[in-house]
Amino acid sequence: MTDNQTVQACIDAWTQSIESISELLAALPTDSWNRATECPGWSVRDVVSHVIAVESELLGDPRPIHSLPRDLRHVTTEFARYVELPVDKRRCHTPIELTSELDYIVIRRSRALRDSRYEPGDLVRTPAGPLARDLPYWALLRERVLDVWVHEQDLRRAIGVPGNLASPAALITRDLLLEGLPKAVARLAGAPAGTVVSFDVTGEVEFLRTVRVDADGRGTLDERVSLAPGVQFTMDWETYARLACGRGRPGPVKAEGDQELAARVLANFALTP
């Protein structure tokens, strides 16, 4: 796939996922907006507000002027404060106001993406406050696909409406999460040189991947089957995605082999901030 094709694939996947969020919200009863999600401290309305805020910032809209309360226990870092501010600002908004704002943001962002003059390799600043960095345009779009799809799934689990687990956005998310798997195993979990850790993922999105740690302690990822891995993980796709995105410890996760290493890998599996 060329870089231009990657850009278009990301735009199409983002569009499908964020429009799915709009469709979910259109039929959502008012009392469901306050349901808790797996994002610490965030309700359904808060997740929607976050999606709006990030897309708004990408459009160049000014961040709201607002003072955060001091008693938000889930806000423990500067990045968390940055993300929380536009969310807290919208906590007084009604569901109708939020759905209207989301629909308008989708229209504006879709137009901006369609009319963009960025080349795939042009560097663009990410909307992440203290964690902001410059990424190629195609990579920024891929990260937006991941963020929107992950939050779509947060909303679906909170309101009990599963779906889109094998959507185009899900496949892009899978590829992006897999890129971080060697880091999780080799560096974060501290797997020793020579270690082999396999992941057999089933369900809506199936794949088999193996991380191999070389003599210098670096991890590499491949699709080769290992007959005797140090650890063999088996789980379904939704569980894999939830673990990789820091959504608690869902199950079931089957781990065969070195149980101490398996526990370290699971403890360091989350790759999103």
Automatic annotation (TrEMBL):
Mycothiol-dependent maleylpyruvate isomerase metal-binding domain location: 15-156
InterPro entries: DinB/YfiT-like, Maleyloyr_isom, MDMPI_C-term_domain, MDMPI_metal-binding
GO molecular function terms listed in the Swiss-Prot or TrEMBL record: isomerase activity
SUPFAM superfamilies per the UniProt record, alphabetical: DinB/YfiT-like putative metalloenzymes
Domain of life: Bacteria
Residue ranges annotated for the MDMPI C-terminal domain, each copy included: 174-264
Keyword Isomerase on entry: yes
Keywords: Isomerase
Alphabetized NCBIfam families for the sequence: maleylpyruvate isomerase family mycothiol-dependent enzyme (TIGR03083)
Protein name per Swiss-Prot or TrEMBL: Maleylpyruvate isomerase family mycothiol-dependent enzyme
Lineage: Bacteria, Bacillati, Actinomycetota, Actinomycetes, Kitasatosporales
